[in-house]
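Quick look at the format.
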Amino acid sequence: MADPFPETGRLVAEAVPGDNALAVSVSELAGRLKRVVEGEFGHVRLRGEISGYKRATSGHVYLCLKDEGAVIDGVMWKGQALALPFQPQDGVEVIATGRLTTYPGRSKYQVVIERMELAGAGALMALLEKLKAKLAGEGLFAASAKKPLPFMPRVIGVVTSPTGAVIRDILHRLEDRCPTHVVVWPVKVQGAGAAAEIAAAVRGFDALPADGPVPRPDLVIVARGGGSIEDLWAFNEEAVVRAVAECRISIISAVGHETDTSLSDFAADLRAPTPTAAAELAVPVLADLRLTIESYRTRTERCARRYHQRGGEKLAAAARLLPKRDQLLGGQRQKADDLGARLDRGLERRVATARGLLDRQGGALRPAVLGRRVEAARARLADVWRLVESLNPDRTLERGYARVEARGSGDTVTDAAAARAAGALRLHFRGGETVDVAVERGRSRAYLSGKPEQPTLL
């Protein structure tokens, strides 16, 4: 038989006598391996610790499961990842159910995870403590972030299941203590999608407008009945805890019984051991409130009466120290009487003086005296009129004079310069007659004497 592996090397592959093994491609070999692995390991359950957990933008989850001796890659598609009842984290021990397959692109095998569960209560508590430490480090549980509860809220929002006994207990307790307007936001309190609904309900209450058709609550109660840690796990989810911590409305967390504790209890402004206790913490007892108000009213009335009584006593004591009315007004009355008598006498003297003055002035108003005064005034008026007539410039015209005035302005001309400046003159004569003349502006001529001077020989 010929050696299928001869010693001599060949550059080009050729058929060898006795060798019937055909060369296969890498893809064909990878496909055979994939079919073998998927046929042999079509259903597996793996227990291991999560490592390298990563959620892609597509929603698919990629991780590794490891133990002390080996590591295997795993992938969980988006649909199965959204259905997980908890948030996987690195270091958490889980049990993954799925099928084994290969990834030819990288020559590696991996498990396609269809379901993932925590490996016992210990792993669940480890996950809880790890998430608690993370959120506490961010300050979500700080006491300084807690908001005070309103004393008597007008509207209370309740986030719980609409069909359970919890909502009935809360409503009955509120009705017994102090009837209040309650708005219920129905949600699932366990199972797939419960955490998302609870977080959306808390944020929905926080986003309600103050004047909208649905009244904005003054207080929110997040409540659920008792159960195992798996039943209460929705209230440990990071989305719920962050929604409770970021809510601007005061929140009471009432999840489970008194011995149950969830992360939402730490994030809420107040933790109630039970839903019924949450209703008791939310509102005061109306009867006690009325009794307190009545006691305050009685005390206020008693204090007011006491102050009124003491004020009356002080007023009476002060009134005894005041002087009597006659003592205060006696001197003033006497002074008023004296001034009244003086006023009467003064008026009588004033009337007598005025009457004497009137008699004297009346003598000066007799007709004979008035006639003489009128004649004297007429004589003075005639003398003044004669003086005025003598000063009238037109009176000189009667003696052969003329009055000269400028024709344009009507001003009286008194010298030659004013006449040359006016140019045109108007002459006024007796009887109101006028003559207009013009002033010549040429140079004056030099007239020679009648006899010329005798020439001289010298």
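Next, a different chain entirely:
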Amino acid sequence: MEDHGIVTLDPQGRVASWTAEAGRIGGWSAAEIVGRPFSVFYPPDDVAAGKPGRELAIAAERGRFADEGWRVRKDGSRFWAEVEITALFDGQQRLLGFGKVTRDMTKRRDAEEALRLSEERFRLLVHSVQDYGIFMLDPGGRISSWNAGAERIKGWTADEAIGQHFSMFYPPEDVAAGKPDWELEVAAEQGRLEDEGWRVRKDGSRFWANVVITALFDDRHRLQGFGKVTRDMTERRNAEQALRERRRLVGHLVDAQEVERRRIAWDVHDESIQSMVAVGMRLQLLASRLPEPHASAVAGLDESVQAAIGRLRGLVSRLRPPELDRHGLVEAVSGYVDEVAGRWGLEHSVHDELTAEPSPEAAITVYRICQEALSNVHKHARATRVDVRMSTVDNGTLVRITDDGVGTASDDAGAGHFGLVEMHERAEAAHGWLSVTSTPGQGTVVEFWLPMLPDLTGLEP
């Protein structure tokens, strides 16, 4: 038989016949081995312990002997063998000898040993993990294993937890609602379940947990139990809530600023500018009635008044750009870029790739961030060109402002600039994001994204 070395032995254990496969496994030729005691196949310590003779005695007594162990090749190397010795009797039950079948199982043993070591390393890994509670449940939900992370997170030792029902980790209201059993049912039906919610420690305190329950099936798809991984997310949840609260407060502050800007803009437009316009008209009328040089002096006053009116109108535009309400975001940003970039001597462009107009709240935030970004270009970049690109991406507005200025190391881009902090806060308050990338000698890119509509969701309970 292939892979099976078949040998016959005489009653004293000397080799009587030898197959080619036996030669391949052991290394001897038939001429070298026939007539020699089969103990040459055994390691010296087994020979010294009398193992070869004992195996023959057992086979003669019971008819058969099976064993696994180390055997020796002709070159002295060892291999792991599966051996079966069968006693051969004549019709009068007189022992004629033995049939011996040997199979080299070294590869199988090495694979089994590698698997055992892998499983042991995995067991040690699971047991030593501190940040995750990893444990097993039987099909009924009772705890059958427990790692150090589970003890650290939940407070129970392995002796206290094993054998208990895992519902002891749930608040009373969840237990009363049948949540633990429902989670096992869903995991068994769908293969896994993931959940976040309150769990209870041994001391009664609560923590916010991320939980994954995985159903474990055998080869016949029979449920053997569940694997459960728990992570304490309390700190992350508190940090997220603090961030949401900060964003909410910043959002309220930004909203209050915009309301105040609008009020001041209206007051300046409806009162100060109108009054100045009336003064200018009276000065023009007066100048038309006075002789020189008084007429020229009054005309000079009128020019000063008109210049003041122009500056006030510029202030109104910066406080609350009328184009934003009248014509939309692109017109407002384009007008502002044309005005300031032209005044600063910068080549410029505005690319409109919007497929949807953002909400008024998002539009004013985009406009304010663009204002601050362009101001930074003027103050710090020493650029000759600036380009603004607006597009609709992922149900939101993506804006990219690029200059060809001196740039800076990425880690230092915008460091210490209050304007950059304000841009970040505005973007985050609108539930978006902002990034600044810069390369020395290659300019800076300010990129930010805002959702199309304001986020109206409240805090988690």
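Confidence is low (pLDDT under 50) at residues 455-461.

See the schema section for token definitions.
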